[in-house]
Amino acid sequence: MRKILLCLALLSTMLVGCSKVEQSYSYSLSVQEVLDKIENQEDFVVYLGTTTCTACQNFAPIAEKMNENYDTQIYHVELDLEEDETLKEELLSIIPVEYTPSINAIVDGVVVANYEGVLEYIDLKEFMTKYEFIK
Predict the structure, then answer these.
(1) Cα(first)–Cα(last) distance of the chain, in Å?
(2) Where are the alpha helices (DSSP H) in 29-99?
(3) What is the mean pLDDT of the chain?
(4) Contact assessment for residue 58 and residue 67, using Cβ atoms and an 8 Å cutoff
């Protein structure tokens, strides 16, 4: 009986340890909302990712910290959650993505800078400063 309980305890620990951690983003947008911002010629930063992207999960807290520390808005879109393939294709024709996360500075509705991969906090700050999203 003791061995069975020990095995069950180990199995539960392994299952909990392997479960997917859900990320919450304070500035999540849909693909349509990003397209609307582009059409309205807005200035914004958006990173495109997927729910299964480990690099995106690593970048999320960095973006959140930047949002908190500089009262800015780095928006986030989960591409794999978009059900409308036409909308997704439209966005990807404007912002081509080879790797995620794809971090994009958009000024007057035009992509002026793109970085694919995880930016460390200091590099993200430099990116945001260069394109005047923070001062």
Answers:
(1) 64
(2) 31-39, 54-70, 85-94
(3) 87
(4) no
Which pLDDT tens digit goes with each residue over 55-106?
999 999 999 999 999 989 999 999 999 999 999 999 999 999 999 999 999 9
Q: How far is 82 from 32, CA to CA, in rounded Å?
A: 9
Q: Is the separation of the CB atoms in 91 and 32 below 8 Å?
A: no
Domain ranges of the chain: 25-130
Fold of domain 25-130:
Glutaredoxin (3.40.30)
Report the alpha-carbon distance of residue 38 to residue 91 in Å, rounded.
10
Q: What is the DSSP letter of 80?
A: G
106-110 contact pairs (CB < 8 A, 24+): 106/37, 106/38, 106/42, 106/43, 106/44, 106/45, 106/46, 107/43, 107/131, 108/41, 108/42, 108/43, 109/37, 109/38, 109/39, 109/40, 109/41, 109/42
Per-residue pLDDT at 107: 97
CA 102/CA 49 separation, integer angstroms = 7
Enter the pTM of the model.
Answer: 0.79
